[in-house]
């Protein structure tokens, strides 16, 4: 085989990858089409659900604030994640306390059960310790 044939063979996309990407693109196009049809024929006010065309047009507008909107979205994402972790750990701790109170003392000591908040604190602190250790041990 020549070098040109080898390089062409290296750039060929496998048929299963083409099929998978085609399906993903078709699904997204179908969702956008359904969105457009619902907004156009469903008589939904534009302040509730703007059309895809209006959405794309507003992204390119001069009065669209990319940095401000990105910061608001990022704060909503991280705030929601933090809130869900706090609530989830609190619910899990309450469940662990309820379960531990119903266990006999010998079973609780034998299993050495840690509450989810203890596990979370231990894993977060070990992660940060490892990252700090890695950062400072790789200095020249």
Write the layout of secondary structure elements.
Blueprint lengths: L2 H9 L3 H27 L10 H8 L6 H37 L2 H7 L4 H22 L3
Summarize this structure as a short list of keywords or feature phrases.
79% helix; mainly alpha; 140 residues; single chain
Number of domains: 2
The overall average pLDDT, rounded, is 78
Can you summarize the main beta sheet?
none
Beta-strand residue fraction:
under 5%
Q: Which shape, going by the Cα principal axes? A: extended
Q: Rg to the nearest angstrom?
A: 27 Å
Distance between the termini: 46 Å
Q: Let me know the number of strands.
A: 0
Given as residue ranges, the uncertain stretches (5+ residues, pLDDT < 50) are none
Structure class: mainly alpha
Total number of helices: 6
Query: Roughly how much helix do the residues carry, as a percent range?
Result: over 70%
Order of helices and strands: HHHHHH
């Amino acid at each position: 085989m020549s070098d040109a044939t080898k390089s062409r063979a290296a750039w060929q996309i496998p048929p299963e990858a083409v099929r998978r990407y085609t399906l993903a693109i078709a699904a997204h196009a179908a969702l956008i089409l359904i969105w457009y049809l619902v907004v156009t024929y469903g008589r939904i006010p534009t302040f509730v659900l703007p059309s895809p065309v209006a959405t794309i047009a507003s992204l390119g507008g001069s009065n669209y604030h990319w940095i401000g909107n990105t910061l608001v979205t990022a704060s909503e994402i991280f705030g929601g994640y933090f809130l869900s972790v706090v609530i989830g750990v609190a619910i899990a701790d309450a469940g662990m306390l309820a379960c531990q109170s119903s266990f006999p003392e010998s079973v609780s000591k034998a299993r050495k059960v840690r509450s989810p908040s203890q596990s979370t604190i231990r894993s977060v602190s070990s992660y940060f310790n490892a990252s700090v250790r890695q950062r400072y041990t790789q200095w020249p």
